[in-house]
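Q: I'm a student working through a structural biology exercise. My instructor gave each of us a protein and asked us to get a predicted structure, then write a short paragraph describing it. Mine is Aspartyl-tRNA(Asn)/glutamyl-tRNA(Gln) amidotransferase subunit A. I'm not confident about reading structure output yet, so if you can add a plain explanation after the tokens, that would really help. Here is the sequence I was given:
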Amino acid sequence: MLPNDRPLTIAEAADLIRDGKLSPVGLVEDCLRRIDALDGTYHAFIEVLREPALAAARAAEAEIAAGRWRGPMHGVPIGLKDIYETKGVRTTGHSRVAADYVPTEDATTTAMLEASGAINLGKLATWEFAIGGPSFDLPWPPAGNPWRHDHDPGGSSSGTGTAVATGMVLGGMGSDTGGSIRFPAALCGIAGIKPTYGRVSRAGVMPLSFSLDHAGPMAWTVEDCAIMMQALAGHDPRDPASAELPVPDYRAALTGDAKGLRVGVLRQFYETDAPADADCAAAFDAALAALADLGATVVELPALSPMQDYLAAAFLISRSEAFAIHEETLRASPGLYGEVARERMLMGALVTGADYVQAMRRRRELCVEFAAAMRGVDVVALPTLPTAAPKLGAYGKHFTIDRPLYTTPFNLTGSPALSVCDGFSAEGLPFGLQIVGHPFDEATVMRVGDAYEKATQWRGMRPEPLAMAAE
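A: Happy to help. First, here is the predicted structure for Aspartyl-tRNA(Asn)/glutamyl-tRNA(Gln) amidotransferase subunit A. I'll explain a few features afterward.
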């Protein structure tokens, strides 16, 4: 798999590794060659763990040869958004504040992936502390879009989206407080799932908002996300929000069809409250038609409160909690932060206790409202974002106020939500289809997304990063 060849999916690599037809060492070496060829242009990595990854690959190869194959993640190269703590390896948050921070233990998810046999190729670019970006005043540049390197890959899991789409890694970890898995998944043309709040541990992941943070996987296909979810889901006493519930077989739930499922359409959000671009809406309508062809029944959801109510509650909660987390350092050393992160966090200082209480009260009302709207449907569908990727640097400090994301309401509700590619703009930049489910029913969400992917041509279309790098 040389840099200009089609990268393997996790599922493909897993079968080849299990059958002794692909060496984990060779796979890691191919990914490292791709990083060497591309990352000077795309800036997906903060740090590449070349020698540790090769050592882990050699160990995986020996273990598999001895008949101790751990499962489909064994020997598979991945990357971690640089807010996931890694024992003995810097975890910077893409910030001067933590530029020299070396954790003494792994995040729970880091350890779970290692236990599954996954091989960490390195730490991936993010927006500063998952809030401040894209920024150009930090020690590392922002990542570029894999389809056009001068366009934005979305945030805050920007490096993960870019690394997966360009094949520098086969999968990676993101985090999602207002859309930061689904936002870059949509703009990079990959799959990314925000699990239900409490399904995947956040212990050892740098926090932004205790009430809204989610951790989850990003990969080229939904099937790959399902494989990663199997390694990640489960109760963790280190995370006080972690749910103690059974974990289903996610991959077994991928039936390839949507027969008998009811898909509710949330037109209000993207047609009335914050209208999507015409080509984005057209791609979504075509996706609905494809789901109907797969056996789903498409129904219109009843009217909800304005999307702005969901966004306002989430904004007050996230900004006040982010300020509470960073207050001490912001007061002592504000200049260590980039301008965008500093200004976004400092807004939380203006949120009163009464504001916060009212936002939490309104959150509960909106959760009840959305749960009622989902009665009688299995999933809800809408676009992930209103537009394709703009030029890198075009997003302003408060861009989500001007052009809201359709992702944030489902951080407020804690619902599982997936983004998959559902087409391209005239410029060749991807759009995203968002699929939202009932709490702890990631299996159905991924079943719908997987069936859609397999019925459409989008997974056969990869960016041509070497050609773009030469522009």
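A: Here are two points you could use in your paragraph. The longest strand covers residues 417-424. The chain has a mean pLDDT of 96. It's a good idea to check both against the output above yourself.
Q: Great, thank you!
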